[in-house]
Each structure stands twice: as structure tokens, then as C-alpha cells.
């Protein structure tokens, strides 16, 4: 399944950051991320090809992200929406959106809640998403260290195991997740801290 995600945010620096963050998670799995900085741009992109889910800011220069989310859900009733805002406590979501809004993320809370919400959606909507339950606790520890940028030799030293054992862990992780090379490193970088 080729996953298609749309990010809608009017702050260009944040838009580029969100685009890159989601690209790291989704591109390693063969998906694409598109971006828009306004309702009008988002509507044009959605009319060309409807995404699987959207990440949308509530306040856009030409209207409300809620308006876009409602239109999106009307045309794709089972889709998910992630809402991003700096004023999470000032909004009440319409009842029509409640079952589709996966998370309302406060921008002030940083990257961790976003990564976790994206991770959960990916597991839910993408049947090819790597199943981490197949990894042992030691392999999960190894995967987190890969995500921190350590190579196999550095991980072996940190975990106090032989280089051969570290290589075996890496091969098993690659086999179980069906991801290798730089895609594995990119994937590991996006792991939520809670895993």
C-alpha cells in the first residue's frame, strides 16, 4: 500500500519541519508526503488525489483547519485526521469530526506526541507497517540505538556484546521488519520514546 499523507500548516518553517518528520516515517515505508500552507492549496492537492490521512493546523490564513477536516471526512468517511494547534484548550471539535480525529496535538508539547500519534495511525492504516511485536526486548534496545545514529560496532560496545552478536541482532531486525540500510536508520529515528 502506497501511503499518501497531506500536511497543512501556514508557518513555513514548521511546515517544512513537519514535512521532513513525516517523510522520515512514511518514505522509509514507501509512502509519500505532500504539503500545503493554506486551505486553498490543500483543497487543490486533495482534489488531485485524496490522501489517506491529513495533519492540519487549526488556524490557517484563509480559514479554519476544522473546515478542511470536515470536507475531507465528508469525502473519505473512514479517514483519520491529526489536528495541530497552539491553542488546544480554546477549541471544541464538532461532533461530526470526533470519530475521525485521531489526536489534537498542542504545538507547545513538542515532537513526542506528534511522533506517537503518527506512529499509531501508520500502524492502523498501513497493513505493511513493520510489526515491532516480533522483536525481542534486546532487539528493540538495539533498534533504538540505531535510531540514535550508532553503528553496529558502537552498539556492540554500548551493549557490551561481541561485534558478531551485534551483527546478528541487526540481521534479525532487518529480516523481521523487512527494512534495511538507510531506511532502517530513518525508521529507527522515528520510533516513539514509549516503545
UniProtKB/TrEMBL annotation:
<dbReference type="InterPro" id="IPR036388">
    <property type="entry name" value="WH-like_DNA-bd_sf"/>
</dbReference>
<dbReference type="GO" id="GO:0006355">
    <property type="term" value="P:regulation of DNA-templated transcription"/>
</dbReference>
<dbReference type="GO" id="GO:0000160">
    <property type="term" value="P:phosphorelay signal transduction system"/>
</dbReference>
<feature type="domain" description="Response regulatory">
    <location>
        <begin position="4"/>
        <end position="122"/>
    </location>
</feature>
<dbReference type="Pfam" id="PF00196">
    <property type="entry name" value="GerE"/>
</dbReference>
<keyword id="KW-0238">DNA-binding</keyword>
<protein>
    <submittedName>
        <fullName>Two-component response regulator, CheY-like receiver and wHTH DNA-binding domains</fullName>
    </submittedName>
</protein>
<dbReference type="InterPro" id="IPR051015">
    <property type="entry name" value="EvgA-like"/>
</dbReference>
<dbReference type="InterPro" id="IPR011006">
    <property type="entry name" value="CheY-like_superfamily"/>
</dbReference>
<dbReference type="GO" id="GO:0003677">
    <property type="term" value="F:DNA binding"/>
</dbReference>
<feature type="domain" description="HTH luxR-type">
    <location>
        <begin position="128"/>
        <end position="192"/>
    </location>
</feature>
<keyword id="KW-0597">Phosphoprotein</keyword>
<dbReference type="InterPro" id="IPR000792">
    <property type="entry name" value="Tscrpt_reg_LuxR_C"/>
</dbReference>
<feature type="modified residue" description="4-aspartylphosphate">
    <location>
        <position position="57"/>
    </location>
</feature>
<dbReference type="Pfam" id="PF00072">
    <property type="entry name" value="Response_reg"/>
</dbReference>
<dbReference type="InterPro" id="IPR001789">
    <property type="entry name" value="Sig_transdc_resp-reg_receiver"/>
</dbReference>
Amino acid at each position: 500500500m502506497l501511503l499518501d499523507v497531506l500536511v497543512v500548516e501556514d508557518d513555513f518553517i514548521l511546515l517544512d519541519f513537519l514535512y521532513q518528520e513525516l517523510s522520515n516515517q512514511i518514505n522509509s515505508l514507501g509512502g509519500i508526503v505532500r504539503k500545503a500552507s493554506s486551505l486553498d492549496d490543500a483543497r487543490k492537492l486533495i482534489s488531485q488525489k485524496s490522501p489517506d490521512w491529513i495533519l492540519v493546523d487549526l488556524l490557517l490564513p484563509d480559514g479554519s483547519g476544522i473546515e478542511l477536516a470536515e470536507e475531507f471526512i465528508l469525502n473519505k468517511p473512514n479517514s483519520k485526521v491529526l489536528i495541530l494547534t497552539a491553542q488546544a484548550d480554546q477549541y471544541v471539535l464538532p461532533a461530526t469530526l470526533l470519530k475521525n480525529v485521531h489526536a489534537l496535538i498542542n504545538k507547545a508539547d513538542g515532537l513526542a506526541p506528534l511522533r506517537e500519534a503518527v506512529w499509531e495511525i501508520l500502524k492502523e492504516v498501513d497493513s505493511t507497517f513493520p510489526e515491532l511485536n516480533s522483536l525481542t526486548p534486546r532487539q528493540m534496545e538495539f533498534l533504538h540505538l540505531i535510531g540514535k545514529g550508532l553503528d553496529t560496532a558502537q552498539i556492540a560496545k554500548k551493549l557490551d556484546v561481541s561485534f558478531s552478536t551485534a551483527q546478528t541482532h541487526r540481521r534479525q531486525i532487518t529480516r523481521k521488519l523487512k527494512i534495511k540500510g538507510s531506511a532502517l536508520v530513518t525508521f529507527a529515528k522515528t520510533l516513539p520514546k514509549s516503545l
